[in-house]
Amino acid sequence: MYIKEIDQTFFEEIKRMLGEVFGAPPWNEDWSDEKQLDNYLRDLTEVRGSLVYGLFDGDLLAGVSVGKIKHWCGGTEYFIEELCLRAEYQGRGVGKEFFSLIEAELKKRGINTVFLMTDRNMPAYGFYKKLGFDELTELASFFKTF
């Protein structure tokens, strides 16, 4: 398995993967509105600093990390918006390998911080803790529906 930075030529494949992975348990997100999913992914990938890594098993896109490079007072970081693996690659240590490869690529770019958010009640929470991520307990996320 290997990773490489991928571009818009993979857009439809990434879109399908996000819909399939996050539409299944435990997330059960409703991405049936293809236009909404298309707009969401464009919001993430068509911005300054967008950085998308694909994990490949031969020619098959097995996983994806969609994020952006952010410049901050403490340095430059990679802010991951979405990270996922196809279902058949989950639970086999592939995610850990994928993240190690991402870290190596980021170090080459001089980036030494990764920031992401996840729900505490999802398996991803434990996954990131096992990878050595620290939780920022002083931050709060807010939303308002009207």
Blueprint of the fold:
Blueprint (H helix, E strand, L loop, with lengths): L1 E4 L5 H13 L10 H12 L4 E8 L2 E13 L2 E11 L8 H15 L4 E4 L6 H8 L16
Parallel strand pairs: 4-5
Antiparallel strand pairs: 1-2, 2-3, 3-4
How would you describe this protein?
The protein has 146 residues and is of the alpha+beta class. Helices cover 33% and strands 27% of the residues. The chain has one domain (2-130): 3-Layer(aba) Sandwich (Aminopeptidase), CATH 3.40.630. Strands 1-2-3-4-5 form a 5-stranded mixed β-sheet. Strand 4 (75-85), helix 3 and strand 5 form a beta-alpha-beta unit.
Q: Any descriptors?
A:
146 residues; alpha+beta; Aminopeptidase; 33% helix; globular
Class of secondary structure makeup? alpha+beta
The unreliable regions are none
CATH topological fold name: Aminopeptidase
Total helix count? 4
Mean pLDDT: 94
Quote the distance from N terminus to C terminus: 45 Å
In total, how many beta strands? 5
Domain count: the total is: 1
The share of residues in helices is: 25-40%
**What is the highest CATH level, the class?**
Alpha Beta
Query: Radius of gyration, rounded?
Result: 15 Å
What CATH architecture would you give?
Answer: 3-Layer(aba) Sandwich
Condensed summary:
The chain is 33% helix and 27% strand. The protein has 146 residues and is α+β, with helices and mostly antiparallel strands.
